[in-house]
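Journal club prep — side note

Before the paper discussion, L.F. wants everyone to see what a predicted structure for a comparable chain looks like in token form. Sequence:
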Amino acid sequence: MSKSIISISKLHISYHNNEILKNINLEVREGDFIYLIGETGSGKSSLLKSLYKGVDFQIGNIQIADYDLSKIKNRNIAYLRRKLGIIFQDFQLLSDRNIYKNLEFVLRSTGWKDKHKIKERIAEVLNTVHLKKVEKKMPFELSGGEQQRVSIARALLNHPKIILADEPTGNLDPEKSKSIIETMKEINQNGTTIVIATHDYSIIKNFPSKTYRFHDKEIKEVLVS
């Protein structure tokens, strides 16, 4: 049986004395593909952010990728994030440089120095997300679906154990959404654990997997039909 890669216990998250989530318990195992669903404001994004220390939590504990987030020192947060691939709804590509330079920037900022290895890794991740001959293009020259594929490629650069995706299909039409999830399923089949926060129920129906619903500050596993 695969081992636990994310373990959340008795987690509470509040902003400015406003309780967002309470008593969250969740176990994610290596190789899982998990959906987090719920209304806007139900806490999906807050939970994802807590996994990479994008938000603090006051009570409870998170163990992720061999880190204990209740005890992690600030200087180690960057190392934690290198083990994670993070995908945002709005792509967050750097608009002032081409696709190659976008990806190169991430590698160099995480310690890669060898030009040949950088070029090789960029080619590998673009191939993984089925993008070819886009290296010299600027982000605005790509479709929304292509930009999201670049953001997935960026998330894969440092061979993450886990990908956290916050509404990865939120700005895409149904056909492009389907294509993005197909790609993420392929990545998952190669062993990467994937957690997706979404309100797009059509992708869950097309690609069913373990699903947790956020409601009234809590979560529970549900069957989506």
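L.F.'s comment for the group: Residues 93-159 form one domain. Keep this in mind when we get to the figures.
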